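ok so i was messing around last nite and threw this chain in just to see what happens. nothing serious, just curious
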Amino acid sequence: MRTVRFSDRLAQANDFAMAVEDQGQGKPIVLVHAFPLDHRVWQWQVRDLSARFRVLAPDLRGFGRSMVTSGIVTMEQMADDLASMLDALGVKEPIVLGGLSMGGYVAFQFVRRHRQRLAGLILCDTRATADSEEARENRLRTAERILNEGTSFLADQMLPRLCCERTFRHQPEVVEKLRTMIVESPPEGVAAAARGMACRSDATDLLGQIDCPTLVLVGQFDAISPPEEMEQMARAMPKASFVIVPDAGHMAPLEQGQFVNQAIQDFLSRL
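result:
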C-alpha cells in the first residue's frame, strides 16, 4: 500500500491521506470496493491483472487505511477523491474504472463528473437506481447504530446476503475475510458512507449516455442486485456486455476470482 495526499475540500484541510494498492505497469485500471469493506475485496484482480496493467485499488474515504471523515460522505465526494488520487499519482491516461456494489455508485458519479478520464467501465454487483424511502430510512438507522455499537453487528447482518450458499459451504475463508474487513472498518467512516448512499441520486437517466465500453458483471445468486435487474441495466447502455458469474453472490470478484479475472481480461483485450 502507498499513501497519496491531496487538498481536501470537504474538510477544508490542507491535505487528505488516501491509501491505495498500486501494482503493475501499463494501462491504468482503478478498482473501487464495496460497503463496508476495503481494497482487499479486489485481491485476486490486483494479483492477476497487475501482470499486464497498472492496477490501483484505493481504500475509499473512511475505509481501510484512508483518513476518516465523519458526518456524511457522498458518492460525489468519493468520485472526486478518485480524480484527485489520479492527479496525485500523475495518471493522465484515461482509466478503466471498476466498481463493486457501492463502488458502482461511485463509478456512476465519476461518469457524471469526470467522463473525459474514462476509457472503459466495469460495473459489478451494483445498481443504477436510488434507494427506496424504506431503504433510505434503514440506512440512516443503521448509521446511528454503527456509531453507537461499532461494526460487528453489521457483519452478522450482511454476510448472509453478501455471499451465496456455495461460498459459505466451500469457501469459508472468503466469508471470514469479509467479516474481518467489516469489523476492522472505522465506525465513523462506515456511518458517513451509509448516509452518503442513502442520499445518492438515481443514475438511471445516465445509462443511455454512457458511451464508453462497459462490462456488467453479476453473481448468479446475487440477492442484492439480482441478475435480472443488472441485465436490464446493461441493455440500457449503448456499449455494454453482460456476464453472469456462476456460483457467486454479491461479492463475485472475491467469491469467483478466476472467472471474474478472465471476464475482465477478455473485456480489456477488446479496448
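not much to say yet. DSSP finds eleven helices and eight strands in the chain.
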